[in-house]
Write a structure and sequence with these properties.
The protein has 2 domains: 128 residues, Jelly Rolls, CATH 2.60.120; 108 residues, Homeodomain-like (Arc Repressor Mutant, subunit A, Orthogonal Bundle), CATH 1.10.10.60. Helices cover 40% and strands 17% of the residues. It has 10 helices and 9 strands. The radius of gyration is 21 Å and the shape is globular.
């Protein structure tokens, strides 16, 4: 049984951008694998081992194998619940494990399928059941990237997806480790505003000085704070965000690369292509050609019952 950081190799069983109708109900159950979700829209009532909470948008849920849980939607509020069912380690019997909707007493014949909880395998990797990152947009985007790659079988797509899973776990682990840290409210507001600017104005020319001035901090102080919050420099984060928008437009529109460069804040096609290769390891045309040869992802998820 794998028990170390060096052997982390996630196996994705389900990756779904689930939309739950008002009034939907996932009855009490336990699962064989690990479950990770984010309340992206709406409000969700969760009961985890007898403790009930109402979760607002931006809240992540992490359920370990064998932990009883129940989800309910309000009768008038739909919920978007992107989620994963996965193993932290790829084991020989991974393909035999299925998503359970039963309670522990009904799974006696399948006890051999339960994965060990990750905190028992790697004690340092202990995630809370309910996680509220101070800024949920980066981990949510990471989760959506994982879901977008589900069903693609090329080596590049599989490596990219695995990288996003590990990045997501790292982000949530940091959120758990720093949840008790008393951060300066002014710094929190500054980082929220910087993230809003990047998200809403990525198509405009933005420099480090521009972002720092917008939140009333010196460039050096702003850069240091941003790195503390997001584990990335501001300009690297902006570049990566722009590249994600480029990928989306390549896959969902017939715009020319020149127009995409203009809409995503690049000064030229050459600048876009150079940044794209730095981030993705391939050119935009190679990326698009590889995706066109992939079969469309099969929809899969965890339905709730009324």
């Amino acid at each position: 049984m794998s028990t170390g950081w060096s052997e982390l190799r996630p196996y994705l069983r389900v990756a779904s951008n689930q939309r739950c109708r008002p009034g939907m109900h996932l009855h009490p159950r336990v699962i064989f694998d690990h479950y990770l979700a984010c309340v992206a829209e709406g409000a969700l009532i969760v009961n985890i081992e007898g403790e009930e909470q109402e979760l607002e948008p931006g809240t992540f849920i992490f359920i370990e194998p064998g932990v009883e849980h129940e989800f309910r939607c309000y009768s008038n509020v739909p919920v978007r619940l992107p989620h994963l069912h996965f193993d932290f380690f790829t084991l020989p019997d991974a393909g035999s494990v299925f998503v359970s909707f039963k309670q522990a007493g009904d799974l006696k014949d399948h006890r051999h399928l339960f994965r060990p909880p990750i905190h028992e395998q790697v004690p340092e990797l202990q995630l809370d059941a309910v996680i509220k990152p101070p800024h949920y947009e980066p981990p949510l985007q990471c989760l959506m990237n994982v879901i977008a790659l589900q069903g693609q079988s090329s080596p590049a797509a599989l490596l990219e997806q695995r990288g996003y899973v590990l990045q997501l776990i790292a982000m949530l682990l940091r959120a758990c480790r720093t949840r008790e840290v008393n951060r300066n409210p002014r710094h929190l507001r500054a980082m929220e505003e910087a993230m809003r600017l990047i998200r809403d104005e990525f198509h405009k020319p933005l420099s480090l000085d521009d972002l720092a001035a917008a939140v009333h901090l010196s460039p050096s102080h702003f850069g240091s704070l941003f790195r503390q919050f997001y584990q990335s420099s501001p300009m690297q984060f902006l570049r990566n965000f722009r590249i994600e928008q480029v990928k989306h437009l390549l896959l969902t529109s017939d715009r020319t690369l020149t127009r995409i460069a203009e809409e995503c804040g690049f000064s030229s096609v050459h600048a876009l292509s150079r940044a794209f290769k730095d981030v993705s390891g391939m050119s935009p045309s190679d990326f698009l050609q590889g995706r066109r040869h992939e079969p469309p992802p099969k929809p899969s998820g965890c339905p709730m019952s009324n």
